[in-house]
Amino acid sequence: MSVVSIMPQNEIKSELSSVYVHAVASMAGCACNRAERQTDNLGIDLTIRFRGDFPNLPSPARLVTFDVQLKSGSNISFDNQNSIVLDGLDKKNYDDYRDDRRNPPIFLILFVLPENSDEWLKLTEEELVLKKCAYWVSLRGAAECTTATKRVFFPKKQLFNVAQLQNIILPTLAAEEEFLYQYS
């Protein structure tokens, strides 16, 4: 039986990438909010917030906030076995994402789906399975772009999952925030 979709495949991919990030953020104990139209026009798809203790900081209780720009695709190229490549990020967007004055910081999250759309999502009474995974990168402080578009590399070791969010992203952002607070 053929299903008629009211959304183009790119919009379906975008929605599935949002579901993926929401699920990971929820499992990590974070709030994840979808951007409104005006914020989306600024290149922000989601905002993630976490209030928690970071024992290595002088002020252990912290509220950490960061924005997310989602990208998704099923025909993704690999630089080698260590990186996934996103081709064609507009110079304007790249420059916005690399701005080290941006507060809160923004992360790019690339959700990779199987090429066959029939494999993207499976649902049974026992489980809901969303196929493949996402990778994250921060362009904060990256080199200036001198071309109309930029190729962005997502290291495969930067899998966007609960452990990466809890053990790398949140503590790093909390430490940066603490540093800025102490020296401002």
Write the layout of secondary structure elements.
Layout: H1 9-27, E1 31-34, H2 37-40, E2 46-53, E3 61-73, E4 77-78, E5 83-90, H3 91-98, E6 106-112, E7 121-123, E8 128-130, E9 133-137, E10 149-155, H4 162-182
Parallel strand pairs: 3-6
Antiparallel strand pairs: 1-2, 2-3, 4-5, 5-10, 6-9, 7-8
Number of helical stretches of at least 4 residues: 4
Overall strand count: 10
CATH fold title: Trna Endonuclease, Chain: A, domain 1
* Secondary structure category: alpha+beta
Helix % is 25-40%
* Gyration radius, in Å: 17 Å
How large is the share of residues in beta strands? 25-35%
SSE topology string: HEHEEEEHEEEEEH
- Intertermini distance: 62 Å
Main sheet characteristics = 5 strands, mixed
* Low-confidence residue ranges: none
Q: Which strands sit side by side, in order, in the main sheet?
A: 1-2-3-6-9
Number of domains: 1
By CATH reckoning, the class would read Alpha Beta
Mean pLDDT: 87
Rough outline: globular
CATH architecture: 3-Layer(aba) Sandwich
Give an account of the 3D structure.
The protein is α+β, with helices and mostly antiparallel strands. The protein has a single domain, classed as Trna Endonuclease, Chain: A, domain 1, CATH 3.40.1350.10. Helix content is 28%, strand content 33%. The chain contains four helices and ten strands; from the N terminus they run αβαββββαβββββα. It has a five-stranded mixed β-sheet with strand order 1-2-3-6-9. A three-stranded antiparallel β-sheet has the order 4-5-10. Strand 7 (121-123) and strand 8 (128-130) form a beta hairpin. The longest helix is centred in the C-terminal third of the chain and has 21 residues, at 162-182. The mean pLDDT is 87.
